[in-house]
Queue: 4 jobs
Job 1
Amino acid sequence: MKRQQGFSLIELAIVLVIAGLLLAGVMRGQELIANAKVKSLASDFRNIPTYFYGYQDRFRVLPGDDHAAATHLNGGTSATTAGQTQNGLIQGAWNSDTATDESFLLWQHVRLGGLATGATDTGSTQYIPRNSEGGRLGVTSVDALAAVSANTFNSAHAMCSDGILGRYATQLDTMLDDGSGNTGVMRILVNGTQGTGEATPQPASPYLVCMSF
C-alpha cells in the first residue's frame, strides 16, 4: 500500500505566516497609496488660498477680480464682468468655462503673477487646473457657490475640487476640518446636487468637496 505524503503542521504554519505577511504588505501598500492621494488633494486646499491672498498682497486686488490685470501682468487679461468692477468678490461659477468670468481668469492671474504654475493661455487645453484624481479645481464667491451647495459659510470665498472618492473626501475633512461632510468650513457634496453636504459619504462614490477660506 502506497503511503500518501502531505504537509506537516510546521510546513502549513510557515505557509500561513508567509501568506499573512504578503497580505499585510499589500494592505499596508494600499494604505500608503491612499494617504499619499489624500495629502496631494489636501495640498490644493492649502496652496490655492495662499495663491489667492498672495496676489492680493502684491497687487492690492483679488486675482480674477482684477480689472487692470493687463497693466501689471505681461499678457494678462483684465476682468470685464459688467457691473462688478473690483468689488472684492470672484464672480462666476467655480467650474466656469467662460473666458471673461472672474473665476476663470483667476488662474491666469495667479500664474502670470508668479504665484502658481500652469498654462496662462486661456484657450489652452492645459489651462483648467486639475487635482491628482483628474477632477477639476475652482474658486468662487460663496454667494455663487450657494446655487450648488446651499451652504452658509462664514467667509466670502470657497475653493472646490471634484471627482474625489468618498473615502478620500472623509479623510480630507478629518485632516482639514471637523470630520463631518455637512458642517464646518469643508462640505462634501454630490456633484451637481444642491445640499448642505454628506455627513457620511459612500466610500467608492465621487464627490465635490468645497472649503471656504
Job 2
Amino acid sequence: MRQHLYTLAGGIAAIALFTGILYAGAAAIRDRESAATPDLVLETPDLTEIAPAPDEAETGDNVPLDLGTPTAGNGAAATGDQAQTPTTEKTARAIEPQQFGQPEIVTSAPLERVEPRAPLSAPEKQAKATAGPTILYRPVAIAAGVIQFDKLTLQIDGIEPEQAERTCETGGKSWPCGIVARTAFRNFLRARAVSCDMPEGSAGPSATASCSLGGQDLAAWLVDNGWATPLPGSALGKRADAARQAKLGFYGEDPRDLSHTPMTFDDPTLGTGMDEPQPDL
C-alpha cells in the first residue's frame, strides 16, 4: 500500500514540476518580447491645421485657370492684342492605341504610298528544278522488259515489248521462251529497287521509260542475254547481233533441256530474305 502511495505522490510531484517549468518559460518569453518591441504611440493630427476645402462656388468651372503669359515665336513676351487676349482654347490630340507615341506630324498628315526601294543586291536566279529519277521499290516483272509497280505498268524503253505467251522452236522442239525470259528477268531484278527516268506527264496506268538497276541498264541487260529485241536504229543493235551469234536467249535452245548445258540463273534469294526461289517455269 505504501509503495502505491509513494508512486502516486512521485507522479503528482513530476506533473507539478513540469507545469512550473512551462509557466516559467512562458513568462520569460513574454518579458523578452515586451523588451524587444517598443511601445507605439499614435499621434492624432490637429483638425485646426488642415486647410478647409473650397466652397462649391469656387470649384468646377468658376475656378480661374492660370494659363500663363503667352509668348511669341522667338520666346519673348507677346505684345498688343496678343497680350490683352489670352488664348484659352488648346487643340487636344486624339490618343489611339495605334497612334500613341508617334509624333503629331506623322499622325495628322495623310498617308502617302511611295515606291519600294531598290534591292541592295541583284536577286539570284533560281535554277529550274529538274525532277530526279523515280525509284520503284520491289517491282514485279510481268514479261521480259515489262515491269509493274503498284498500279503502274512500265515498258522498258529502247526494246520491243515481249509477251509472256511467246513460244520458240529450236531443233524441231517448241518451248515457252516468253515465260523463260520473264523468269530470267525476275531473277535479275530479285525484288530490288529500280531507278527510272519517268517522262513528264506520265500519270496514267502505263508508261515507257529507261530504267537501271545498280548502274546496269535494264534494256542493255535484256539485249545482251538475248531476251529482248532492240528497236530499229537503236544503239543496242550490235549487242543483239552478239547475242544472236552466241545463241543466247531467244536465239538459243531450251535452257530447261537437261541434255544441254542448263542456263545459269542468278540466285533469287540473295538479299531478299526468301527461303526458296519462286520461278514460274
Job 3
Amino acid sequence: MQELIQASLQNSYSYTAYREFVTSLIKEGKSTGNEQSEALTHYSELNEVRMNRLDKTIVLTEAVKDQLSQLQSNYIWLVLSEGWCGDAAQLLPIMNRMAEFSEKIELRVVLRDENELLMNQFLTNGGKSIPKLLILDAVTKTAIADWGPRPAGATKLIQDYKSTHGVVDETAKTNLQKWYLQDKGISTQNEIMTLVVKSEKALV
C-alpha cells in the first residue's frame, strides 16, 4: 500500500496545478480520464464554472477553523479525482480551503484513471466512486483514514432517488447540485474534520 501511495504522490498535482491541467484539456476539447466524449468534456466545462465560483465563495465555519488551528500532526490529503466529476467539482474547493487554512495540511490531487491500483484499494460498495480523500500521515505516508465520495446527506439523496426511480438521471444530478448549493460545504467540512480529529488522537 505504501508503495502505491508513494508512486501516486510522485505523480500528484497541487490544487492549482490540477485546475490548470483540467483547463488546458478543456481548451483542447478534452477531459481527464481514459474515456473521451463530448459529454465528459461538457461536464468538465460545467465543473470549471462551478469550481471558479466555489473558489471565491466557500467559507469555513468558525468551529472548523478552530479545529484546524489546533492540529498538531502533519497530514497529506491525497484526493483521487477527475475533471468531469460533478461531486469532485463541489468538494475539492472545500478541501483546498481547509488545507489553505492549516499549515499542517498539504493537499495533493491525482487522477483516478492514472492510479487504478490505488483506487482499487479504496472502492465504495465495489465501485470506483470519486472524489476519494485519503488522509495520510505526512511522516510515514500511510493512509490513516479515507472519506468520500459524498457527504452523508448527498449520498442519502441519491440513494433515495435511485430507490424510487431506479436510475440516477439528469433530474437526480440537478437535485444533487441543489443540495450542494444549499449545504454551502458545511457537511463536508464537518465530516472531514470528524475524521481528522479522530486520526489526530490516534497519532498524538
Job 4
Amino acid sequence: MNNKYLRTKTTVSLINYHFVFCPRYRRKIFLIPDIETRFKELTQIICKKIGIEILAMECHVDHVHLFLKCLPTQSPSEIMKMIKGASSHVLRDEFLQLKGMSSLWTRSYFVSTAGNVSSKTIKQYIDMQKVRG
C-alpha cells in the first residue's frame, strides 16, 4: 500500500478513507453482466479527474468498498457526491436494467479513516509533547 505523504504548496498529508455504499434497496446490481467492470472504469476516471488515488476497490453483489487516498481539501461527502453522482448517471444511461431507477445509490454511506499509524501511537505522541521540553 502506498503510504507516502501527499504534498501541496501549503500541506503535507496522509488521508486514506474507507468507503462502503449500496445501491437503493440493496439491489444486486453487480450480478448484471458488465456493470461491475463499467462502474470500476467510471470510478477510476472520476478519481483521476479529482486527484484521488484508489488504493483498493471491490464490488460485492449489493455494495461497494473503496479505499481512497485524498487531499485534506476533499471531504468524504464531496467525494461520495462525485463518485455516486457521475457513476449513477452513466450506468443508468448505459444499462437497460437500470433505466427505470430514479436514482441508483442510497444517500447513505460508511466512511472510516486510516493512516499508517494507530490512534494509540498518535495519542502517545501528543501526550509526550509536554514532557519533551
